[in-house]
Write a structure and sequence with these properties.
Blueprint (H helix, E strand, L loop, with lengths): L10 E4 L32 E10 L11 E6 L6 E4 L2 H7 L1 E4 L2 E4 L10 E2 L7 E8 L2 E7 L9 H5 L6 E4 L1 H6 L3 H4 L5 E6 L2 E8 L2 E8 L2 E6 L1 H24 L5 H7 L2 E5 L4 E5 L2 E5 L1 H14 L2 E2 L5 E4 L4 E5 H5 L11 E2 L3 H16 L1 H14 L3 E12 L2 E12 H5 L7 E5 L1 E2 L2 E2 L4 H57 E7 L11 E10 L6 E11 L9 E5 L2 E3 L3 E7 L6 E7 L5 E9 L6 E6 L7 E9 L4 E9 L1 H34 L1
């Protein structure tokens, strides 16, 4: 049965325009969809991840670590993981459903909503290694955060059960359903989900290993007793058929044989007939009828008449791939699928008549024996003997459903001589006189038994269907809404986040509407492509012994950066200067060029503790050499040049002239 188009298991979506812009401050805003606390990340974190085995709007913040992991870049990039602490939840958490308080997790002593099988094996995983990538997983999670498909297959995580019985009363339908539906539960295989954000792309995956909706109905359970009574009625019909006034009894009483076999003559008549093994056959028929559940042709529904349970295979509702690979936000129990369920229940119960007919043939008609005894007189020469001609057959042999042959025996002897030698000559006579007339009436006996049974079964089943179908249609949607591959918008970390829940329950959707998500994974990243870190220096050339101001940009916010001077040969010069970036990833620092450093083309490196690095050039000079040159050049020229010229020139000219 194909209900829904099923895309591949892994679903990738392109982030919408809502993802544009930095969203660090939005992540910590109150969530209107569910009162779910955001990951405990810093406001400046550009990416976050949140994984929860159980996510519910009644989960208090102080219990958030019970199967919850969170990460944020850069405050706590992870990877982080957290197993589900069942004891913590058992001691502290219950669901408030109006007049009913129900433990979230059931125990051996107390009934609860959830039984998570090997709950201690379930865990969550998160990592946010940089601003544009983030991963979250929850449920059946293996090493590295991926879904543990092998563990799911081999039963490591057990099966989950959602007990919805107590919700019947809260929905106000328990009085209506006590005699119709008295227990209701979801039985699920292992669950898991994972979400990965990488820039603009978000990839999600989920798994729901198995699923059954189990409905316990006293109305269906009562059918087993009523069907056994119907089989007993068949036995009554058969017993009546071999009585003196029954069809088989009358035929047997009327049998008359008077024949000459050559070696002897035989006279017989006034026979009797009896049933052999009827009670045992009816018991076997009852066992066979109840041993296997009734099924519809699509395998959607199995009805156990002994326990009175209706098991709905939720995998069959999903389509060829079962519950995996369904489109986002697939509602499992909507009006369409509930219609399929009620139709399958009708079909499955309708197979009772056919099944009973098959069982009557196999277990009753072919197994119940008939013993016909004909008092006979055999006369040979001067001797006469009174003997019994005994025919043993089955109802099936007479009706043609049993291919084996009846047996004929002569019980007695003549003058001490066994009469077996007469048997071969007598058999055709007995077959004509006994078997043939019995075959002529057996069809009517079978019709009487089965026709009456068909009417009885119809009278039993139709009222059940008339009562059960509207209750299923009306009650299921009031008690629970089940969504597979739920992807709520916005996600649980704000407007620009993405969430995938493997399975989401909305309890009492028309009343309290309490949400419980199983295997919930949420991611959020920045869609702004981070610019590479950059350095600049001012001034760009300094004398040894002086400082330059180093400016850094585009580093991770609130992160330490080591600023180091490196000589032309690549060797560090002096000690690094450590500075912490501001909330925008920028910094300024004074960098000293050690006195005595050789002149040349140097490099300034800035390396963050998170690994980001940038470089810029810095020229280093030795200015003491330049100053001496100026003093010895310009000044001396003035004294020895102009001044001397004046003295030695003009004066000398005047004196010497």
């Amino acid at each position: 049965m194909e209900r829904l188009h099923t895309p591949p298991l892994s679903v990738t979506r392109r982030r919408s325009t809502l993802f544009k812009g930095l969203v660090a401050s939005v992540a910590t805003a109150g969530l209107t969809l569910m009162s779910v606390p955001p990951a405990l990340a810093a406001e400046t974190d550009q990416s976050e991840a949140l994984g929860r085995v159980i996510n519910t709007d009644v989960l208090a913040l102080d219990l958030a670590n019970a199967g919850t992991s969170q990460s944020g870049n850069l405050s706590d990039p992870g990877p982080n993981s957290q197993p589900l602490n069942v004891d913590l939840l058992n001691e502290n958490l219950a669901l408030d459903l109006g007049s009913l308080t129900l433990p979230l997790l059931g125990t051996a002593e107390e009934r609860g909503l959830l039984d998570l099988g090997e709950a201690g094996a379930l865990s969550s995983y998160t990592e946010s290694l940089d601003a544009t990538t983030s991963t979250a997983s929850a449920g059946a999670v293996g090493d590295g955060g991926g879904l543990d498909l092998d563990g799911i297959e081999n039963g490591t995580y057990g099966s989950a059960n959602v007990d919805l019985t107590d919700l019947l009363a809260q929905a106000g339908v328990d009085g209506l359903t006590d005699d119709i539906v008295d227990e209701l539960s979801l039985q699920l295989g292992a669950l898991g989900s994972t979400a990965i954000a990488d820039g603009d792309d978000v990839t999600s995956e989920y798994v729901v290993a198995d699923g059954q909706l189990v409905i316990s109905s006293p109305l269906v359970g009562d059918l087993s007793t009523e069907l056994n009574s119907a089989l007993t009625d068949v036995g009554t019909v058969l017993n009546g058929a071999v009585g003196a006034d029954g069809a088989l009894g009358q035929v047997t009483e009327a049998i008359a044989i008077d024949t000459d076999l050559g070696v002897a003559s035989v006279k017989a008549g006034g026979g009797t007939i009896g049933l052999i093994g009827l009670d045992a056959a009816l018991d076997e028929a009852s066992t066979s009828l109840l041993a296997e559940p009734l099924e519809d042709s699509n395998g959607l529904v199995k009805i156990d008449l002994v326990n009175g349970t209706i098991a709905v295979d939720l995998q069959a509702l999903g389509g060829p791939d079962g519950l995996n690979g369904l489109p986002a936000n697939t509602e499992l129990l909507d009006s369409e699928t509930i219609g399929l369920i009620t139709g399958a229940v009708t079909e499955a119960l309708g197979t009772v008549t056919t099944k009973v007919g098959e069982i009557l043939v196999d277990d009753v008609f072919n197994n119940v024996g008939l013993r016909i005894e004909l008092p006979a007189e055999i006369r040979a020469l001067i001797a006469t003997a009174n003997v019994d001609i005994v025919v043993e057959t089955t109802l099936g042999q007479l009706a043609g459903t049993d291919d084996s042959d009846p047996t004929i025996e002569i019980d007695g002897n003549l003058l001490g001589i066994p009469l077996g030698s007469l048997l071969s000559a007598l058999e055709p006579v007995v077959e004509t006189a006994v078997i043939t007339p019995l075959q002529g009436v057996i069809g009517g006996v079978v019709d009487t038994a089965t026709t009456g049974l068909t009417s009885t079964l119809d009278g039993l089943i139709q009222p059940v269907l008339d009562t059960l179908s509207p209750v299923l249609s009306g009650v299921l949607t009031q008690v629970v809404s089940v969504t597979i591959n739920e992807q709520p918008e916005p996600g649980y970390l704000g407007e620009d986040s993405f969430t995938v829940n493997a399975l989401s329950l909305e309890l009492l959707p028309n009343l309290a509407a309490v949400n419980v998500d199983l295997a919930s994974s949420t991611v959020r990243v920045s869609d702004v492509v981070a610019e590479d870190p950059a350095l600049s220096v001012d001034p760009g050339t300094v004398n040894d012994g002086d400082t330059t101001e180093v400016t850094g940009e585009n580093y991770p916010p609130n992160t330490d950066v080591d600023v180091q001077l490196v000589d032309p040969d690549g060797n560090p010069v002096g000690d690094p200067v450590t500075v912490t970036t501001d909330e925008n990833g920028g910094f300024t620092a004074e960098l000293l060029v050690p006195e005595g450093s050789d002149a040349g083309d140097y490099t300034v490196e800035g390396t963050a503790t998170t690994g980001e690095t940038a470089t810029t050039d810095l020229g280093v000079t030795n200015d003491s050499d330049d100053d001496n040159a100026a003093e010895n050049g310009d000044d001396n020229d003035g004294v020895n040049g102009d001044d001397n010229d004046g003295v030695n020139g003009d004066d000398n000219d005047g004196v010497n002239g």
